[in-house]
Specification:
- The structure holds 2 protein chains of 2 kinds.
- Chain A is built from 10 helices and 7 strands.
- Chain A has a 5-stranded antiparallel beta sheet with strand order 1-5-2-3-4, covered by helices on one side. Chain A has a two-stranded antiparallel sheet with strand order 6-7.
- In chain A, strand 3 and strand 4 form a beta hairpin.
- The longest helix of chain A is centred in the middle third of the chain and has 21 residues.
- The radius of gyration of chain A is 25 Å and the shape is elongated.
- By secondary structure, chain B is of the alpha/beta class.
- Chain B is 32% helix and 26% strand.
- Chain B has 5 helices and 8 strands.
- Classes of the chains: A alpha+beta, B alpha/beta.
- At the A-B interface, helix 10 of A face strand 4, helix 2, helix 3 and helix 5 of B.
Chain lengths: 271, 177
Amino acid sequence: MAVKGNLRDFSVTQLLNLINLARKTGTLTVEGPNEAAWVSFQAGKLIYAQLGNEDGTLVGILVRTGRITAKQAQVIKSHAGDKSDKELGLLLINAGYLTQQDILAGIRQYIIDIVYRLFTWVDGFFRFDNDVLPPDDRIVMRLDLENIIIEGARRMREWEQLQEELPNLDMALDFIERPGANIRDVNLNVEEWKVVSYINPKNSIRQIMKANKMNELEIRRIVYALIQAGLVEVVRPPGMPLPPQARQVPAVDKRQQSSLVNRLIDRIRSL
Amino acid sequence: MQTVKMVVTGPFAAGKTSFIRSVSEIDVVSTERKISTEAERIKETTTVAMDFGRITVDDDLVLYLFGTPGQKRFDFMWEILSEGMLGFIVTVDSTRPETFREAKGILQTFRAYAPTPYVVAANKQDMEAAWTVEDLRIALKLDPAVKMLPCVASDRESVKKVLLELLYSILEDMEKK
């Protein structure tokens, strides 16, 4: 019978531990908040992963991990015909476009990134199907799970902390005006500049994330750093409705409101 | 009879219950329970639903003070308590820097519930280990326009000053509109 349940009750860390200790062979399917992931194992080693509708073929992985450009991928695909990933990999190596190391490092990075992303999923159905493995033509790895679990747990803690700091990605950002401070004088990396270029009270953090093709962890990390550095602040985007509970002073006219507050002031003074 | 309310919030063990007790004319209706988790056992009891104090202004007006539960697992109460509040006070234990980040988070949460005026009370300023108000302002990344006031929650005069400053802010806010 397949191991199945919900991540609420049995976390990704616990699942990977189980697979590692029991040296399981098969594929773990996890249905996350917006997409599903498939992660395959052989005798407790991580061998393959695929996320949602992402192109999990060798060419797709090489583009995603920056080994080749999208244009090069198009050319390769048009010449590849119906070659399997293994055949295509050999072709790229023999033609001198990439080394074996490049290809293996790209696949490794892709697989591990998917698994790390799973650590941020705290709710979702999972199922482990014994002996179900990826298609034969895929290039698989044999990666030890121990280090991945340790790093994943660390990222999970970071994720929890970032979620606490930035609970709502539908809020917007604005620059903090400080005398003498100039964003141009701050050393930012390329990713941070990409985010900064979209900062505007009209753009929600989620919109900035999508415009930069980032995931929630990446955008939260950058925004958190910018907030910590005192460069930006979280603001409510225009038109964002207030929670229905948000009501202010009883709706009476201004003079009555002032009179009410002045009575309170007099009373507190006299205590 | 008109009633208005203010909310006293802040992290666990920041002094919210003491704050309300210092000025309430009735015995504070408290929902304290013995603490069940070791991690939070820095005091014997904690508020699990709300504290409730009252100040009668005159025959027609009563001010209620509501204290929020400090432990995070009771934060579902916050939104309910914030409904219709005149303003709110965030109490911070000046001697426990490990709670500052949580205080900042609570402040932002309440700001999101209702854009009413608020002040921050830097509690336990009578203790040697207390951070200064200036240092606390930096640690909490408070806007210079937000009032941060030294406070000793068990001292009525100190609590009165905090309440008055909040009322002055509410008045200023009304005049701006």
